[in-house]
Design brief:
This protein is α/β, with parallel strands linked by helices and 564 residues long. It has three domains: 162 residues, Glycogen Phosphorylase B (Rossmann fold, 3-Layer(aba) Sandwich); 104 residues; 228 residues, 3-Layer(aba) Sandwich (Rossmann fold), CATH 3.40.50. It has 19 helices and 23 strands. It has a ten-stranded antiparallel sheet with strand order 4-5-6-7-8-9-10-11-12-13. A seven-stranded parallel sheet has the order 3-2-1-14-15-16-17, with helices on both faces. Strands 20-19-18-21-22-23 form a six-stranded parallel sheet, with helices on both faces. Strand 4 and strand 5 form a beta hairpin. The longest helix is centred in the last third of the chain and has 17 residues. The two termini are 32 Å apart. One of its GO terms (biological process) is protein transport. InterPro entries: Accessory_SS_Asp1. This is Accessory Sec system protein Asp1.
Length: 564
């Protein structure tokens, strides 16, 4: 059995790109036994599983063990079961309800992403707030008291009978802040220094009773998981999957060495990360544990982009404020302006205004006789998906010409026709501007389903994110499209299936190479098919089985150029 420990937050979100989740899918798809072990409380777990098509998978909830919760199902709580005072008035307001008592706000009832009750925040005390959090099985699972500065002062956890089981008090002595209130027989102590210590004990108990010698655990490498897993390797071969080494700034050099000394493997997603971590560790008995392991797999999902008239470029922006983004945007927008049947789709969370600025300045250089466009209107057209909003943006695109303020102004306009731009030329420029603007769209992150639909018609992926997004790389490989990335990567071979940007290898050359020459694009497709065959889910499942169960040798990341 493979036990997998993800790090999920409390919101109901898609986890298709989560490496631990993908490993579970991979094993189950290949009829290999695997299940989740969930160390976090996760009150919305059933919604989370359903959102990701995982409702029927096996899982074990560590907090159910701690609190002695026996129920696995139940209906979500409704307003009538919240225990509000009988004369409370309810007003629906946005994603929730305001509960008022004698004309004053008493509590705010917040909904989760599925419009069901998630929590009740009481508003009576301005110095601190009390929040009741509800499990999706229909009961309050914890009550938290938080100071105005965000510090948790007290927290109590309950079972499904609303019995208080565990209590945290920040004012208690440092080694007694977490206290057992009920079911004391299942705990080794009655007081703990931290919640992490309590969870650590519960995971150890789970391992002792459920995990056998030929089983294995792979955990997402996160600060939360490390806190509850350290020291448990004596009981089970434990491996970590680190999908983003750059974000682990909380982990000191000494802690890295301690963690990897205890771990069976530390899997990373690139040769760059492997080299960086091995340099940090230095000792050979530790460095040999650091290995490349892709938690994703390919599918034969070749799209129809080579049959489409329109050649769509898909750009994913990098970190907010990246210096090279303006130049990248200018190159892409000039191509949309100058090349027929070229369009641009941009995925970004924080750079929409910057995209609008780049478009206004780039288009202004192309159409010097037109007035400077209204940035707000440009932004509306870029981000809107409904036709009414797009039409409003287009109507506001250019400012209206100033009306003559005096009789003499009117006379000057009438007698100076040479100063007026040719109306036909203006109309053509305006139409070209609008046509090009409509070929550029901006949006946030897409769901896995929508992303696959879009990749089916994309001609090229330009991903500026660092480190390179391996999930997106596997999606691009599966779709058979070339990738332009910002730093070298094992899955991209220059002028085969992609392009690595540099001073000597600018984006304009990559666009010319793949979009203006079908032979080069087809060569990339052939190379992608080889990668698809190499990283199909059955091969990837065998790879991971060999590593986590049999301690197999590290995969050699070959170039496929020679047919290896």
């Amino acid at each position: 059995m493979l036990f997998l420990m993800p790090t999920w937050n409390q919101t109901v979100t898609e986890t298709s790109s989560d490496g631990i989740t993908t490993l579970l899918r991979m094993f189950l798809q290949n009829d290999e036994p695997a299940e989740f072990v969930l160390a976090d409380l996760l009150p919305n777990l059933r919604y989370q599983l359903n959102e990701n098509g995982l409702f029927g998978v096996d899982y074990h909830r560590i907090w159910d063990d701690i609190l002695g919760i026996q129920v696995t199902n139940g209906l979500p709580v409704d307003v009538t079961k919240l225990g509000l005072p009988v004369d409370t008035e309810l007003t629906y307001a946005g994603p929730g309800i305001i509960a008022s008592l004698r004309g004053r706000p008493y509590a705010r009832i917040n909904f989760n992403e599925k419009s069901l009750i998630k929590e009740v925040v009481y508003l009576e005390n301005t110095a601190q707030s009390t929040t009741d959090i509800y499990d999706d099985r229909g009961f309050m699972v914890t009550r938290r008291v938080v100071a105005a500065d965000g510090q948790v002062l007290q927290q109590t956890w309950f079972n499904e009978q609303q019995e208080a089981i565990i209590n945290f008090d920040v004012m208690a002595p440092s080694d007694e802040r977490v206290r057992v209130k009920k079911n004391v027989g299942q705990f080794k102590k009655l007081q703990y220094a931290s919640v992490a210590d309590l969870v650590h004990e519960a995971i150890g108990h789970f391992i002792a009773n459920n995990v056998r010698d030929n089983d294995a655990i792979v955990a997402d490498f996160s600060q939360a998981n490390v806190a509850v897993l350290q020291g448990l390797n004596a009981q089970i071969p434990l491996s970590f999957l680190c999908t983003n080494l750059q974000r682990q700034t909380w982990c000191s050099e000494q802690l890295w060495q301690t963690i990897i000394k205890q771990a069976r493997h530390m899997f990373v997603l690139s040769a760059t990360d492997k080299a960086a971590l091995r340099q940090l560790l230095k000792q050979q008995e530790l460095t040999r544990k650091v290995k490349i392991g892709y938690p994703y797999y390919t599918n034969l999902e070749l799209g129809t982009s080579n049959e489409e008239t329109e050649m769509v470029m898909y750009l994913r922006t990098g970190e907010p404020g990246a210096e090279d983004l303006d130049a990248i945007l200018a190159v892409l927008m000039r191509r949309v302006l100058e090349k027929e049947h070229n369009s641009l789709e941009i995925e970004t969370e924080a750079e929409v205004d910057r995209v609008a600025d780049a478009l206004v300045s780039t288009f202004a250089a192309k159409f010097p006789n037109l007035p400077k466009a209204n940035k707000g209107a440009v932004r509306m057209v870029l981000v809107s998906s409904d036709q009414m909003s797009i039409m409003r943006g287009l109507q506001q695109l250019f400012p209206e010409p100033d009306e003559p303020k005096t009789a003499s102004d009117a006379v000057m306009l009438a007698v100076a026709p040479a100063e007026k731009a040719d109306e036909k030329s203006d109309k053509e420029a305006h139409d070209q501007y609008v046509a090009a603007l409509l070929k550029i769209k901006v949006h946030g992150a897409l769901s896995s389903t929508v992303l696959q639909q879009r990749l089916n018609v994309m001609r090229m992926l330009i991903d500026l994110r660092t480190p390179t997004d391996k999930y997106m790389q596997f999606k691009a490989i599966s779709a058979g499209i070339p990738q332009v990335i910002s730093r070298p990567d094992e899955l991209v071979v220059e002028e085969e299936n992609g392009w690595v940007l540099s001073a000597k290898k600018p984006l304009s050359d990559a666009l010319n190479y793949y979009l203006d020459n079908l032979h080069n694009w087809n060569k990339s497709l052939v190379y992608s098919v080889k990668l698809i065959q190499k990283y199909m889910f059955d091969n990837q499942t065998k790879f991971w089985k060999d590593r986590v169960f049999n301690d197999g040798a590290e995969e050699k990341v070959d170039s496929l150029r020679s047919g290896n």
